[in-house]
Amino acid sequence: MNLTELFVGRFLLGLMLAGMLSLGAAVRAESEAVPLPPVQFSERTLANGLRVLLVEDHTSPTVAIQVAYHVGGKDDPPGRSGFAHLFEHLMFKGTANTKPETLDRLTEDVGGFNNAFTSEDITNYFEVVPSNYLETLLWAEADRLGSLVVDETNFKTERQVVIGEYDQRVLASPYGMLFELLDSKSYTVHPYRRGVIGNPAELNAATLEDVQNFHRTYYQPDNATLVVVGDFDPVQANRWIDQYFGAVPNNSRPIPRVSVVEPKQSVERRTTYYGANVPLPAVALVYHGPARSSPDRAALDVLENVLSQGQSARLYRTLVYEQQVASQVSSSADLREQPGLFVVYAILNAGKKPEQARALLDGEIAKLQQAPVPEAELAKAKTQLIAELVRGREQANDRATELVLATLVGGDPRQVNTALEEIQKLTAQDVQRVARQYLVPTNRTVIDYLPRAMPPAGPTKKERKSP
Amino acid sequence: MKTLCWVLAAAVLLAPAAASAQTQTPPPPGPPPSVSYPTPVERTLVNGLRVIAVQRPNVPLVAAQLIVKSGSETDPPARPGIASLAADLLNKGTKTRSALEIAQAIDALGAELEASAGFDATRVEVSATTPQFGRAFAILAEVVRAPAFAPAEIARAKTQAISNLQLAYSNPSTLAQLVAQRLMYGEAPYGQPAEGTPTSVGAIARPDLERFHRTYFRPDNAVLVLGGDIAPEAAFAEAERVFGNWAKPAAPLPALPRDKRTAASRVVVIDQPEAGRTAVAVGKPVLRRADPAYIAGVVTNAVLTGYSGRLNAEVRIKRGLSYGASTSLVGRRDPGPFVAATLVDHTKAAEATQVVIDTLASLVGQPAGAEELKPRKAVVTGGFARSLETIDGLVNQVGTLALYGLPLGQINTFIGEAEAITPLKVQEFAAGYLQSNQSVVLVGNAKAFLPDLRRRFAERASRIEVILFNRLDLGRASLVRATGVAGK
């Protein structure tokens, strides 16, 4: 049997099905393949530029609504890190028509929930409610797009909340600063180096005018994507969307986009951080990777899985179980709208040296470069990744998030229907190739993250001051 | 006077925001959606195993839950914690596979396997994608039918369980719930701590676990629910394949423990001076899950709990006594508990206790009208619908109906039944079930609130029991460690 042909066939069939109105029986091309039906979405753009993606599904009498703004940490103005995240907070304050926290009352009090997140590339707001509240929530989301009150009081209150969040997540959490260092030490010029949460000094320097300017620039219909998944009538939903979102005028000012390109790294960089509240040393290897839209994405996901998913994964077996050098190991293909990172780290056991852990991590990475992953191990990785994909399709809100990420970070909503085939068609050679291409020393930054009490072996390096 | 204040506060809270000429108001909801969940079908195997299939093929996932209709209520009074520890150990090795081999097999299938014990049942569940389900299901059957209870794994699980208990006791809110359980049920099985005590867990030995498993894990004491992307006939065939030769023992099933809940209510203070804040819990045993009044109970509970529920409105929004206050109603085979709880500054503990009791009484004196009831019912129906969004959730709800002998069709009637609860039903439920004989527990720095508590509850002041935390023994209905026993 020619596997390649078979997968190409399934791939084309998947696309054809995606274009049809109703879905027939799921394809079961071979006994082991998971018959995952494609996500049937409709797509259109309103006159004011709002992109709308709808998925009708009457499995459950609920509906998930997401409004994603194409603005994240990388888009923060120079000297104003943390603005995108600050806005996530401001969007829950009042509008011209509502009191603060109205969104909470419109969701929690009807048996639903709401939340939001900010990443390097997007800010996403979402809620799940009983489906008869769809119109109410479409109104509320359009209302906060069109009439948010950005005043001195809201700005100052939420700025304090965000600075409190920084204190808790970055300063008080033992490994919080490590996650900031991954970005700040591996990017030299790209704004990804600033992270998402920002820093108190820059937030405190901001004026209300800066904030209002940021809002007028990025919180516009043509910079937003509305995704609705669940139990609704598309004709009626589209009417409401036209009525409420269509009425929001678009501001014609151009949206600035990050065009800075991180130059290719050519020598390994090393850095050491000493923190007051670090209980056990950690080491991190941070490699530059491709963008999320890269064809290498699936192979890097497999690499991540083989290294660190579950107790049968390679890093866990070697560093935690057999050598007992580390208490915790992790790897992650952190791919983004623009070229991202592949991060490997270990938190050590008491009394273990960072160089021991680095040597073991390097050994495991070298094995992946020297020989292809055995078939059984590759099959396990694919099975786990596919199961994860399938579980992500169960709830309307998860499917909406998947569509948002594919559209704004991956660049194409149709990625949700090609992900399965991309995992299935991977070979052990693909995985070996990406290990050789990306996981090389000249492409990485090595971070030793140590307790302040730990005496440095060489010349003293000053502790990084909290911003 | 308190009553008057409450009415005014409610008027402010519940009145719609006055709309000026320019502002818009949110459009109201449409009619409640019609709901149709797949109808469960069932069959009983020759060995007595009841098998229920519920097909929902929207995603290629299948989940199965095996419910053994015995849990912590069967723990002997001298040794609580057996059922819970047995559940922890089911997937930690069988007659043919080690704990690590089970973990590797489950990982390789991309599956999830979990086991847990409640008072009324032990549940073991697995989920996997459709092509992998058969193999994952066989592992579920293996851990249900032939757990090894290996000594090394028992030792590890006991250590873990004891550190979890120590963690639980250091949290006043968790401790208050455990003490409330003892106050409400006394010597009855629901009064025992399901996770045991450090002493009882330390004493559990392999024969205890094997006896629990041998006695209750049998096909005629179990229900199997399969759901998701699997047709009923295929589900029944799978059940037959892995459980068909599960032999039913000749010995009859032991009778269920009788409900012996205590009628007398108690007021107990656990003096834990080092606690950061004081936890308050007020509760009483209420009704069986199968009682026709249960759904009125669920709606009544929703009027009280949640951010906008009456209790949080009184405790947090109106008085700022606490970050939050909530209530819960648990449906069980015998009458399950209703508990109202909050966490406050030590000096406010007596006041908070009074506010909790008064708020429960307010449901009778100032009954919820249709306007107040509407959003609270939406909380109930919306939460129910979301609980059924996943196949795990669907299988779990169907399993609960089966466990308590309820019609499986309730999965499709529940929302309508909840919507039909009238203000009068809520008032009647509150009057009939929630008022008298409440047990009260406060866990915190007693000297900061005892005088205030004695003053506010003057008629019960002589009955307030104060127990030092280091004398507390949840293994005894008296809650006090026997004198002359040294150490922990």
From TrEMBL, chain B:
Keywords: Signal. Residues 1-21 form the signal peptide. Transmembrane segments: none annotated. It comes from the Bacteria. InterPro entries: Metalloenz_LuxS/M16 (IPR011249), MPP/UQCRC_Complex (IPR050361), Pept_M16_N (IPR011765), Peptidase_M16_C (IPR007863). Residues 50-194 form the Peptidase M16 N-terminal domain. Residues 204-374 form the Peptidase M16 C-terminal domain. PANTHER family: METALLOPROTEASE, PROCESSING PROTEASE. This is Insulinase family protein. It comes from Gloeobacter morelensis MG652769.
